[in-house]
Specification:
The complex is a heterodimer of chains A (about 80) and B (about 110). With about 80 residues, chain A is of the alpha+beta class. In chain A, about 35% of the residues lie in helices and about 25% in strands. With about 110 residues, chain B is of the alpha+beta class. Classes of the chains: A alpha+beta (about 80), B alpha+beta (about 110). Chains A and B meet through helix 2 and strand 3 of A and strand 4 and helix 4 of B.
């Protein structure tokens, strides 16, 4: 079974992240991801970048809820 | 990946202005993210849209991820373009942007 630690590791392997947080119950996961790769991209593209980083592992991840931030957005969050 | 199924998906999203691929139906969603997506559309006042139950169509279930390079359900398409899943829909709704996108559709 996939753990939040697994998901976090896979995201970090596939993407240069400043910060990753993952919570979940083994099927549904919630991730907060901060990466320079998101700069200049809309939410759809940002999520697609993460999906690509996870690639085949998505078969084992039933659902992934994501909040994506650029480093600047993360630093300025309320 | 089955090109015939991808063609079928293209046909669907280009002939219907608003398409929601979801698990279950708007009345009986089979997953809370799909339920959320249907609820968001309801809250936007959208009455006329095509809901496709991916649990009832194995080919769509297995091939949709290749169409717009998006591996999860639900998926909302407006005028043939993938808008996103339930996270993005909720976010756009909270910002008032989803309502604008939908208003552009019915204005035509």
């Amino acid at each position: 079974m996939m753990t939040p630690e697994n998901v976090k590791a896979y995201i970090q392997q596939g993407l240069d992240c400043e910060h990753v947080q993952v919570e979940g119950d083994g099927r549904h996961f919630e991730a907060v991801i901060v990466s320079k790769a998101f700069v200049g991209k809309g939410a759809l593209q940002q999520h697609q970048i993460v999906y690509r980083a996870l690639a085949d592992r998505m078969d084992a991840i039933h659902a992934l809820s994501m909040k994506t931030f650029t480093p600047e957005q993360w630093a300025n969050r309320p | 990946m089955d090109q015939k199924v991808l063609d079928r998906i293209r046909q669907t999203v280009t002939t219907h202005d608003i398409v929601l691929y979801m698990k279950g139906t708007p009345q009986f969603p089979q997953c809370r993210f799909s339920g959320l997506a249907a609820q968001v559309l309801k809250d936007c006042g959208v009455k006329d849209y095509l809901a496709v139950n991916v649990m009832a169509d194995r080919e769509i279930h297995d091939n949709l991820k290749y169409y717009a390079d998006w591996p999860t359900f639900p998926q909302l398409y407006i005028k043939g373009e993938l808008i996103g899943g339930s996270d993005i829909m909720k976010d756009l709704f909270d910002k008032g942007e989803l309502q604008k996108l939908l208003a552009n559709v019915s204005a035509q």
